[in-house]
Amino acid sequence: MSDTVERHEFGAEVGRLLDLVVHALYSDREIFLRELVANAADAIDRRRFESLTEAVTPPPADAAIRLLPDKAARTLTLTDAGIGMAKEELTKNLGTIARSGTRAFTQSLADAKPGERPSLIGQFGVGFYSAFMVADRVEVTSRRAGTEEAWTWASAGQGDFTLAPATREEPGTTIVLHMKADAEEFLEPLRLQTIIRKWADHITVPITIAEDGKDTPANEGTALWRKAKSEVTEEQYADFYRHIGHFFDKPWATLHWRAEGTTEFAALLFIPGMKPFQAVEGERESRVRLHVRRMFITDEAHLLPNWLRFVHGVVDTEDLPLNVSREMLQSTPALARIRKAVTNRMISELKTRAKDAESYAGFFENFGPILKEGVWEDSEHRKEIAPLLRFKSSTQEGWTSLPDYVARMKEGQAAIYILVGDDPDALVKSSQLEGFAARGVEVLLLSDQVDSFWPERLDSFEDKPIRSITQGSVDLSAIAPAVAEGEPPADTAKLLPLLKAALEAEVSEVRTTDRLVDSAVVLAAPEHGPDLQMQRLLRRAGRGFGAGLPVLEVNPQHPLIRRLAELAEAGDDLKAPAGTLLDLARLQDGDTPRDPAGFARQVSALLAGSLQ
């Protein structure tokens, strides 16, 4: 064996690429540890595999990836018992870039957002070179399993490297990073453990960090999702759930399965048992973690649609490269198949669990508003989501579903009726419900913000149209009232035109209605355009809604309307009473009078007169 140190130039593109990695990716420096640990884990797995068919000894039963930070020497050493590299492999793997060139890497780097940059390191086969982001010199001593020779590769990342004979008692690789002055944070054991927990927590190979003469485990060391369900205890599931989602409770649902066939993956997903402290309504993207061969890749792979973003967990596949890029995540057919399979499995799980009404009610109270978003935005799954929704009802206690509502519909009832508002307690008492209550017709009461939107997209359920009772004219004449009607209705032939003239600038129409019992008036939206709740939301946002003015509906059975009809016959001026009727209708729907102070004075005067 020669004692001569060999000096080599890097491949033509490596020098320029090193400069790019070190400077352009500076803010993502912690990624170096993921890359080196991933390489070490792969080397151990490869040695184990080759030992089955080649004249190679398997790795030790306690094979681990060992990190040794040395603050005094300012070095970080990584050691593995993997397959190792012979001299030629050190030159090929660390001295050239075979798969991609600097030009492609530079272009991708320019196009990538900062959050996408770590994936580019591995994508272009330059993972090892990320070490130079934190080290001004790197030494790699390696011995190929099945051989006795060891070699040391060394470089300062300045365009060349050296190869020299070395000694190593066992096969494997040792990497020594001589850390830069501004990278001493990576010599702190706690910092190293944080990075390992973030990027490689559940890699199956144990990772240890040497501190005070002891090797401390840095990762859990077991990919729980890769185990058979029979091998995992409830406590292990709960511990992993709390770790991955920073929860304090127990999961409401745990889904653990392995898919085999065209696309293979393992999945361990959780639906939380309680609503997180940080509202998930504001966070609009699913954060299920994507792993490739047990290594964490990203939590931005959109493995589930946004309306299932309350689900947490891991999906792990071997059908993707370890360092899959953002571009590949968007276009690869394998990931599209995984997304579809995982989404369908979640829907199936919810359908099954919805059969337990009490348990499902707790889930829906936590995440129902998010689930409803799927009806609005996901045309593919809209009809599957609809039966999973739950609603408060004007006639039922607790929660009810659309299938249950349809089963209870009255003879002659043409539609599924809904009432949308801000306050669920106020909805129960709304004057809009009076005619429906008199006929025993059920109305679903919707008070989530998204309830103003999704019914427009669903439109119908089981061939029954979904109708907002505040929109257009609701005809209940086909359903007989549960109680006998009173006196004949007032003759409003002259009253209605007078009221319309008095409110010309504020209502589009004044008409009678049979959907009131105790109230004199109620507002409705025109047939086409947003209902009253949507109009209120648009007004609050300072936006017009282009649907025209509301409709004022009057109850011809009410004493007040009877009296106003008499005054109309007598030719009295009804401008002031007309304004009061409109303000009453606004108040009943949770709105304010047009002139609150004037309305208060008017009511005060009426009270004073009635008390004399």
UniProtKB/TrEMBL annotation:
Residues 1-326 are annotated as: A. It is found in: Cytoplasm. Its main location: cytoplasm. InterPro entries: HATPase_C_sf, Heat_shock_protein_90_CS, HSP90_C, Hsp90_fam, Hsp90_N, Ribosomal_Su5_D2-typ_SF. SUPFAM superfamilies: ATPase domain of HSP90 chaperone/DNA topoisomerase II/histidine kinase, HSP90 C-terminal domain, Ribosomal protein S5 domain 2-like. The keyword DNA-binding does not apply. The keyword Signal does not apply. CDD domains: HATPase_Hsp90-like. Residues 537-612 are annotated as: C. Keywords: ATP-binding, Chaperone, Cytoplasm, Nucleotide-binding, Stress response. It comes from the Bacteria. Homodimer. Belongs to the heat shock protein 90 family. Molecular chaperone. Has ATPase activity. NCBIfam families: PRK05218.1. This is Chaperone protein HtpG.
